[in-house]
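User: I'm preparing a small set of examples for a lab meeting where we compare how different chains pack in three dimensions. I only have the primary sequence for this one, and I'd like the structure in C-alpha cell form so I can line it up with the others. Please keep the answer compact; I'll paste it straight into my notes.
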Amino acid sequence: MATLDDKERLLSNDNLVITASDQPVAVAGIMGGASSEISDTTTTLILEAANFNNFAIRKSSMSLGLRSEASLRFEKGLDPNLTAKALSLAVTLLMSEADANVTEVAEYYPLPTEPITIITTVDFINNCLGAKLTVQEILRILTTLGFGVGSNKDALQITVPTSRQDVVIAEDLIEEIARIYGYENIKPTLPQKDLRPVSLTSSQSEDRLLRDNLRLLGYDEVYSYSFIGSDLYNKAGRSVVECLEIVNPLSDDLKFIRNDLIPGLLSKVALNSHNYNSFKIFEIGKEIHPKHEELKNELDAPTTETLVAVGAVYNVDNNHLEETYRKIKGEIEYLKAEKDAEINVINEKVLKNFGIKGPVITWKIKLDPYFKKHASLRPEIKDAAVTTPITEDISFYVDEKTAVGEIIKTIKGLSKLVSDVEVFDVYHESDKKSVALTVSYSDKDKQLSTLEVTPIRENIIKMLEEKFKLEVRKTI
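Assistant: Understood. Below is the C-alpha cell output for the 476-residue chain.
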C-alpha cells in the first residue's frame, strides 16, 4: 500500500493495518494510507481513536523501516483509557473550529483495562533503598504521583493508574519513591553480608588461561564483527551460502552471520601489515552454522555454535616461512591442543585479494573439546578459608610402645572446632618418649577468640591425663 509519505510499502502478516471494505487505509499506529488522505475538498471524516500493543507497533515500524510521530508514542505504551478522551477532544475541536456536525459515535472495548494493585511492605521498600522512610512519607509520595494508596496492617496496597504502563511490580514503585525522595538523601552503606567473588566455571577458567598463555607466546588479541558481508568471504576464497542471512541488516556489508573467524582475522592482518613487518594476533569467538533441514527439531535452536580460537602469524620476509610453521607447531604443542587444532598456510591468491605482501600462517583450535579435556585434568579447587585458625602446642610423656594415632583421633573428636592435630616433635628417653602436638582450632563462619578455645584445651588436657594416663608437660 502507499502511505502518506508517497512511498509504496510491502506489508506482511506481521503488520497490523486498519481496513475499510477489506482494503488497508492505514498502517496501524504508524502512518495513514495515501488512499484516505484528507484534501482541501474533504467534507466528511471518519475519526478513529485506538490503542495498540506497543511491541507489535515497534516490530512493525522496524520491519518497514518507517518511524513516525505516531510510532514513537505507541511503541512506548499509551494508556488505553485515554482513547475515548482523545476522540472527545478531537470532536470538540472540529465542532468549535470547523463548524462540524457529529452524526454517529461507536465504541468497541470488550476487555477494558483495569488498574492493577501492587502489595508491598515498608520494610521491603526500606531494605531495597537503604533508607528509613515512614509509612506516612511513602504514602505521601505515591499519592502525589497519582497512585491510589491504602494499608492493611503491615502491608501497603498501591493501586496503579492505567496511565502508568511502566509500573507493574513493587520494584517499579521503589524507583518512583527514590526519585521523589531524592537520591542524595539516601546514604550509601556497605552490604551487611559476606561478599564473595562469583566462582568461574571450568570453561571460563580455561578460557582465561588460554588467553594468558597466548599473550605469553607473543600474540595480541583482536576483535571483529560477528556480522560479515559477501565481499569479505569472497576475498578469503569462501562463500556465504552456508551463512545465516540477517532479515533486517544494518548495512549490505553486514548481511550475514559468520561461520568462520578466519576471514575476519585476515582483514586484521591486512590492516596491521601496513604498519608492521611481523606480528602475531589471535581471536576467540563463536562460529554460527545453520542446521540442515533433516537435523532440525522444534525444541532445538535452528543453529549450532562452535567456540573456537584462531590465530595468524605474519612475517613480510618469505624466507622464514618454514621456520615460522615449526614455531607455530611448537606453540600448539605447548598449549596441548594438537588433536583439536589445524594449521594452514594462506595461499597467494587470498593474500593478493587482501593486499597482504608477506606470507601468513593461520591456526584454529576447537575449544569445546579442548576445554573439556583440560578441565578434567585440573585438580579440584576449594574455597580459601575466611578465618584464621588459632594454634596451640601440647606436649606430654607417653610409653615408648604407645601409638599416638589413637590419641590424635580422640582429640579431634572432642570438638568440631578442632580442625587439625599434627605431630611436630618426638623425643625419646629410655622407655618413654616426649610427644609434642600442634592443635588447630577454627570455625568456617567466624573468627574464634582465645576465650572460646580455652575450655576445649582444658578438656583435651583432662582427657589425656584421665583416659590415657599421660603426664602433660606443657601447653603453649
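A couple of notes for your slides: The first strand starts at residue 17 and ends at 20. Residues 450-466 form the longest helix (17 residues).

User: Perfect, thanks.
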